Amino acid sequence: MPDSMKTIRKKTGHFLEDFEPGQTFRHKGGKTVNEGLFSTFTEFAMTTNPFAKNARYARAYGFEGLVCPPGLVMLVAFSQTVEDVSENARANLEYIDMRFGAPVYVGDTIEVETKVIGVRPSSSRPKLGIVHVQSTARKNVGCEDEAVVLTWQRKVQVYKHDATAELHAGEVEPDEIDCELWLPAYDPSADYKALSHLSSSDSYFEDFEPGTRIEHSRGRTMTPEHIHLTAILDNTSQVHCNQYMIDLDPRQYVGGQLIIFGGIPFVLCLGLSCPDVGDNALGDLVYTTGRHTAPLFAGDTVFAATEILGTRDHPTRDDLGIVETRLLGHKFVPEVDEPQDDEAASGWKKVDIFSLDREVVVKRRSHYA
Amino acid sequence: MPDSMKTIRKKTGHFLEDFEPGQTFRHKGGKTVNEGLFSTFTEFAMTTNPFAKNARYARAYGFEGLVCPPGLVMLVAFSQTVEDVSENARANLEYIDMRFGAPVYVGDTIEVETKVIGVRPSSSRPKLGIVHVQSTARKNVGCEDEAVVLTWQRKVQVYKHDATAELHAGEVEPDEIDCELWLPAYDPSADYKALSHLSSSDSYFEDFEPGTRIEHSRGRTMTPEHIHLTAILDNTSQVHCNQYMIDLDPRQYVGGQLIIFGGIPFVLCLGLSCPDVGDNALGDLVYTTGRHTAPLFAGDTVFAATEILGTRDHPTRDDLGIVETRLLGHKFVPEVDEPQDDEAASGWKKVDIFSLDREVVVKRRSHYA
Amino acid sequence: MPDSMKTIRKKTGHFLEDFEPGQTFRHKGGKTVNEGLFSTFTEFAMTTNPFAKNARYARAYGFEGLVCPPGLVMLVAFSQTVEDVSENARANLEYIDMRFGAPVYVGDTIEVETKVIGVRPSSSRPKLGIVHVQSTARKNVGCEDEAVVLTWQRKVQVYKHDATAELHAGEVEPDEIDCELWLPAYDPSADYKALSHLSSSDSYFEDFEPGTRIEHSRGRTMTPEHIHLTAILDNTSQVHCNQYMIDLDPRQYVGGQLIIFGGIPFVLCLGLSCPDVGDNALGDLVYTTGRHTAPLFAGDTVFAATEILGTRDHPTRDDLGIVETRLLGHKFVPEVDEPQDDEAASGWKKVDIFSLDREVVVKRRSHYA
């Protein structure tokens, strides 16, 4: 490097003092969903719903083609907000009122905007505070089929850059976002039964009984593949992909190692639950609240369970019902002290990693099988 | 978890006592081949045949576009049968009479049915038995271009769920499946020679001499990527992806670690042999028999060889010939006792992992180069 | 193996004595860029330019759809030459005068030719010599939109197969290759500003000041994924994917382990620099010279910096300017002796891995934002 060169280090992302209630970010990039992304994520998560696997099945139901599973829509939309909202975050505290709209197909381009609706300091940790945002993802902006595909709020714990900077603390109202789950119409003349062998036979609306907990049978071990999975989503947070940064000061980082992006266990739990809960879903309606309760690392094996909290009729469709669930993720870690959960095998301790309150729109057997 | 919740653990897959000769499974899901899947598997296996790489070449020969290599067709079709047939298997014993039909293109949707044609107990191990099945994969069911793309039999060693359950032992005849390899017509006016630099120059029909063994020059080291590769195929068997299950009781599992899905070395051996055997193949006709002879683990490097067992004219096409081969896969493991193969380098022992009797339809130089 | 079988081991690639000035290779295979390849590589490298991410943005500028980023074009084209030129190389010494032409879209098929323009022995190492080649990649050969997409020279250090063989030493003139960067026209009636939030706001032509060095903020840790990444490019060199070959004689190989294909850090450095240098680039004009200065291994974290060497007007377009840069890649390794770079953190030594002199065609803020 010539001595005369002036070095520039650009700041990436925003810090706590940069956020201001009412402020709006139109996020950079945007992302066209292509078949590589679709294949990588749908399959990684072991999703089984045929709308995401079998184009003839999806078209027979009135979709244009393979449908992005809700977890993939969420990951693509959420990741667009990372640089502006959470590149300098310590943790994502809560997902709130995440509602799905239009279906996303291969070829659709997703763009996202975020409004800051709250900023407040941490009471106990002066270098941290909480930013509350509302984000909305649209597809094909400016085109005929422009539509909202997802809207949600989240709360993030963000670092201050300058410990002495003053905050723009306060709150504003979230915007009213018109976002209703699009559902293909029920066609009484269609032969849905001829396709019914392609989805699981015991996950229709009639099969869900409030007060039951389904332990999903499969587990899936994560590997350092998570670095690539995170990059493919345009998630730029360094705690997921920069081992050198961790090595310089491991105590500064959770677990002293690269932490897996929370979107990965989010979508993996959805996938692991899919044969039992999602195989006959026409769509996910809303995730009212969700949070990560422990970090996930390469080498961990992820398991999931679903609690059926309630069921209700669909307000306008007698071929469908709504299942109210809580999706739970867990892993096992080697036990260092006494056992504390009778589900854990000897020497291993169960650790809850994820919880998501989730309402699913499910086909009725009476109409489809 | 509320105390009042009732826990459900669904049984996944079938056990030995569930199988009955004559029974038919129409497998769930189905799979639309997209460009992500195509790219991942064709390239992972180091396939070189230009029909799978170069769309202008494929179209010039009369294909609609890039053609799924036979190994990928096999993997997609086979994996659809795993949940019903082999999720609770100890081992896949043999591939039998695997015959290819119509070509598979990006956008085609594969669906598979399986008929149970034999069930018998193991003579020595009361908890195990052998299930013999016949599976058939069709593309674009219900559409104009519906066609059989692959049909095969296999024998699987399956666990009993209940040691005292009675078996439905017996045999039935396999179905007659109309499955003939589709080949693009030879067009005497086409300038095939103008494309001949795009495939290897020494793998035409005239180049194969019965009684020779070709040691393919390349090796390929497997990594934990196999977990993702298996998931992308919808193969749900837990021995390939659930490390916690292995850790709970390593002695119960082959090698005490995650075992790589047999389809992976299958397609990798096909790929490694491609420059020498498959570069001028118009298609694979039949795999008469095949088996895995040792497990493969992350960290192993796979090599392949092909024995030329015979050659014969194609019954109806004088531009083509049929090469009868045996494809062999091997790896090397650190030697713990005395050397037993002069091909092995000092300190390493060669271990055969795979064998496949394979008939390939190959272009004649006289017509194409 | 029957005793009577004759074993064949085919030689792969060419050795030093096989090269002859003036000789031309029409490389095998060719490669159709599909969405799987596009997604894997664009995202792996953390590319941010919206032309490669957002199809509506790309079309609004006059491209046909998502545009392959220059690093991906380079990787696809370069890899086609590996078997003939560098499968038996010890090292790639230099990239020279790499010039871009037509844009590459998903669906385009790339085919490559190489002319040998120089062969000379190594003065100090009798088993090695230097081959100087000129390669040209075309898309859609024989079709209406056939076009040169990339042309470049490189110097490679190649092994002799037979130490006593005579070389065809000498030089010939490189061919004149008509290869000019295609740029979408500036449309004064277009509302480019309505899209300007989708790229970074501080990387227009007006923002680049000669004499500055931009330290790009992100790092990216490489994993054994590099084996798959190399295979997906059809790069067949065994030093990237055959661990057994390394294990047999580790001292023979750089670092005694699998070395990451140089194209990987090449494209990763381009990607890491993208938010600061490439986000508002319409295209890369030329890489005048480039070289790898240290090997990269799984586990290393890659960082990049860009020195702004100069800026100049575009000869024919007043909406654009040309930024002359030097792209630099580095990693950190644990320090074993005394520190030698004040940028290195305690205990770590900075190691330069890559350098590329690169001219980029960049939009002017005056016209686009």
Features:
homotrimer; 369 residues; alpha+beta; 13-stranded antiparallel beta sheet; 8 helices; 14 strands; 33% strand
SSE blueprint and pairings:
3 copies of one chain form a homotrimer.
Chain A: E1 6-8, E2 24-26, E3 31-32, H1 35-44, H2 55-60, H3 70-80, H4 82-86, E4 89-100, E5 109-121, E6 128-139, E7 147-159, E8 170-171, E9 212-215, E10 220-221, H5 225-232, H6 243-248, H7 263-278, E11 281-292, E12 301-313, E13 320-334, E14 348-363, H8 365-368
Antiparallel strand pairs in A: 2-5, 3-5, 4-7, 4-11, 5-6, 5-8, 6-7, 9-12, 10-12, 11-14, 12-13, 13-14
Tell me what you see in this structure.
The structure is a homotrimer of 369-residue chains. With 369 residues, chain A is α+β, with helices and mostly antiparallel strands. Helices cover 18% and strands 33% of the residues of chain A. Chain A contains eight helices and 14 strands. In chain A, strands 2, 3, 4, 5, 6, 7, 8, 9, 10, 11, 12, 13 and 14 form a 13-stranded antiparallel sheet that branches. The longest helix of chain A has 16 residues. The N and C termini of chain A lie far apart (70 Å). The interface between A and C is large, with 48 and 50 residues.
